[in-house]
Design goal:
Elements: H1 2-7, E1 19-24, E2 27-33, H2 49-52, H3 69-79, E3 88-93, H4 97-106, E4 110-115, H5 121-130, E5 133-136, E6 138-139, E7 144-145
Parallel strand pairs: 3-4, 4-5
Antiparallel strand pairs: 1-2, 1-3, 6-7
Helix pairs in contact: 4-5
Length: 146
């Protein structure tokens, strides 16, 4: 999760920085952060009209062109022909419905997230039915545990 925290600083979304790290056989095989698609101007350069607007958080999400961190990590693995079946995805925020569907379809077996962000009943039900373990990383005062 510490690696994900560093990777999220690369996120170019003006609203929120999120990162995902995919691990298989105890090795990092893909990473992703949220922001505009490759070849599109970054948010801070005006690439995403929604992010540049004053619209309230949670509104007009269908107007946002940014890709999510989990989405980018899965796409990067696909671009390089890296299989994700049986992998673990670490993310700084809990996955949305779209990302949950991609996680399931990619064959990822477990998701560990740091902060809960709109982790709805539908996402929980999908993960349960698909037998994807999803849990929040708990923090005690001395060390991280899961």
């Amino acid at each position: 999760m510490n690696i994900a925290r560093v990777i999220k600083t690369r996120g170019n979304c003006l609203r929120r920085q999120v990162a995902a790290v995919i691990v298989k056989d105890r090795r990092i095989i893909s990473t992703g952060y949220n922001g505009t698609p490759s070849g599109i101007r970054n948010c801070y350069e005006g690439g995403c009209p929604r992010c540049a607007s004053k619209v309230r958080s949670g509104r007009d999400l269908d107007q946002c062109i940014c890709a999510h961190a989990e989405e980018n990590a899965i796409i990067q693995a696909a671009n390089y022909g890296v299989a994700l079946r049986g992998a673990v995805l670490y993310c700084t925020d809990s996955p949305c419905l779209l990302c949950a569907k991609m996680i399931i379809s990619a064959g990822i077996k477990s998701v560990i997230y740091e902060k809960e962000y709109h982790y709805g009943a539908q996402v929980k039900a999908l993960f349960k039915e698909a037998k994807v373990i999803c849990r929040q990383l708990a923090r005690n005062t001395k060390h991280w545990r899961n």
